[in-house]
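Researcher:
Attend to C-alpha cell order:
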Amino acid sequence: METLVVQEIIEKKIFVLRGQKVMLDKDLAELYQVELRIMIQAVKRNKDRFPEDFMFQLTWEEAVASRSQNVILKKGQNPKYRPYAFTEQGVSMLSSVLRSKQAIQMNVAIMRVFVKLREILSTHKELANKLDELERRVENHDTEIGSIFQVIRQLMAEPEKPKRKIGFNTN
C-alpha cells in the first residue's frame, strides 16, 4: 500500500518539458530527503555526468510557469534561481552522486515509475495505431458498400421499354 502512495507522489512530480519527461530539482531533493543546495553542489561537482540530455536549466519563463503550477507565489515574489530539470537518465545518474540509503531507495522507486509511464505510453500508441487502421478499413468498406448499393439500385430500376415511333412507317 505504501509503495502505491509513493508511486502516486512521484507520478505527480513528473512533467513534460521541452518534449521530455522530467523532474525538477526541488522535487528530487524533497524525495531524496536532502537539502536542495547540497544536491545541486553534488551535481555541479560532477558536471561531466550530467550532459544536456540528462539535465538542463529552465528558462525564466519555464521557471515561473513551473512555480505557478506547484506553488502559488505571493504578490511580487519571484523565483530566486532557475531550477534544473532532470530527465530519466539524469535521475538515474543522481543515484551515483547521492549515495544515501534514502536516495538509493527513492531512485529505484522513481525508475519504476518512469518505466510504468513508458509502458502506458506505448500501450496508448498501439491503441491509437489500431484505431487508425480500423478507421481506414471502415472508410474503404463505406465506399465499397456505396458502390454495391448503386449497382443494386440500377438492377432494381425497371428497364426502359423501347418507344414505338409515331407516324407513318415506310417499311
Observations:
- Residues 101-156 form the longest helix (56 residues).
- Helices lie at 2-12, 25-32, 36-45, 60-70, 88-97, 101-156.
- Strands lie at 14-17, 20-24, 55-57, 84-87.
- The two ends are 103 Å apart (CA to CA).
